[in-house]
Amino acid sequence: MRFPVVLFDFDGTVVDSGAMILASFRHATKTVLDRELSDAELLAAVGTPLREQMHLFDAERADELIDVYRAHNEPLHEALEPCDGMLDVLRRLKEEGRRLGVVTAKRRGTVELAFAVLPLRHYFDTVVAAEDATRHKPAPEPLLIALDRLGARADAAAYVGDSPLDVAAAKAARVFAVAVTWGGIHTEAALRSEEPDAVVSTTEELLDAL
User: Is the overall model pTM greater than 0.90, yes or no?
Assistant: First the structure.
């Protein structure tokens, strides 16, 4: 097989969470700041830790923004769905004997909310969450942590994500960078600007790339 280890971003890559993230950002900024921001402004920094995103809106009220965001966002996980075809992808990769991991800027507790709703946990051999790294994407540290946990070399691994930050982190870690276009959070043009090793728009194309 080409890549014995496949690492995945979570939001917009494995789980179809773009709409709920946008709704929660819109709710938090309107409630706390009384501001109406465009979708592009609200989603621009998705892929970085939530605190960093809220600092961009208002550094002095970041804690309040986070609290309001989470209060709105966490109940929405009850209706969370996987991205189309992703369960089949994960099943097939595991059947082939590959080791899989999640590398995300989400808190571990928020990942667990998704695992409680969707049949995903058993596919992943490791989860690197926001608390596990001191420097986050686009820095390579979270990916390097995952590789270390799995005892894997960078040239044996691919990272699959829907954000320009994912592509940049993969390249910095020297793993194969696969950009997916189905996340609904970032544009294909933004993904291509980071020069990923592959750009895919369907899960069938993803399997071919891996």
Answer: yes
